[in-house]
């Protein structure tokens, strides 16, 4: 294999080109950021943990008919992925009120929503990743109406799968962020990652303690400590759940 060429470096990953034009290599970093990168730090082992969790979840989603950019893992913190043109939209699915939803609406933390809420945010750091209405999204031509409908449908499908999967892990899926891209055939693929960096995950075995139950990046955002242990706990439960699914097949 020839030397890798860096294509893009984000907050959590570096993308490299490979000898195959339709395949990229994603290198997961230990870097941690929050509040639009105003807070920065490092979480030891995060790259390998998030890569492992994302890989397992992508494989499970593929097995359930959701197309993703995942191919395989050449190393523990690297993922080979299909090259896609990322749509500049962050898709957030919420099942329980937390974070900005509480801040912007006054809903109490932990309010269970009557139905999942799908939100779109403009993936634009200088603008602060603002919340978009559907009409604004179409005005900016960030996606076609058909793509917006497809993304919404896929996001709800993914949410339904993840809720049930994390139940097997004794974890409640509060909310999560997704990104989608278009491959060379203009097919929508789930991209980026699904991990404690992009999900709010609450430990069902922790009782009602609002701090002890947190198993995601909120531990970093809110200086709760034990960040590495929380991420590692999610990984172990995911691996156990996947093993359980495999043993039943």
TrEMBL record:
Its EC number is 6.3.2.6. One of its GO terms (biological process) is cobalamin biosynthetic process. Residues 6-237 form the SAICAR synthetase/ADE2 N-terminal domain. One of its GO terms (molecular function) is ATP binding. Keywords: ATP-binding, Ligase, Nucleotide-binding, Purine biosynthesis. It comes from the Bacteria. SUPFAM superfamilies: SAICAR synthase-like. The keyword Mitochondrion does not apply. It catalyses: 5-amino-1-(5-phospho-D-ribosyl)imidazole-4-carboxylate + L-aspartate + ATP = (2S)-2-[5-amino-1-(5-phospho-beta-D-ribosyl)imidazole-4-carboxamido]succinate + ADP + phosphate + 2 H(+). It is an enzyme of class 6 (ligase). Pathway: Purine metabolism; IMP biosynthesis via de novo pathway; 5-amino-1-(5-phospho-D-ribosyl)imidazole-4-carboxamide from 5-amino-1-(5-phospho-D-ribosyl)imidazole-4-carboxylate: step 1/2. Belongs to the SAICAR synthetase family. This is Phosphoribosylaminoimidazole-succinocarboxamide synthase. It comes from Scytonema hofmannii PCC 7110.
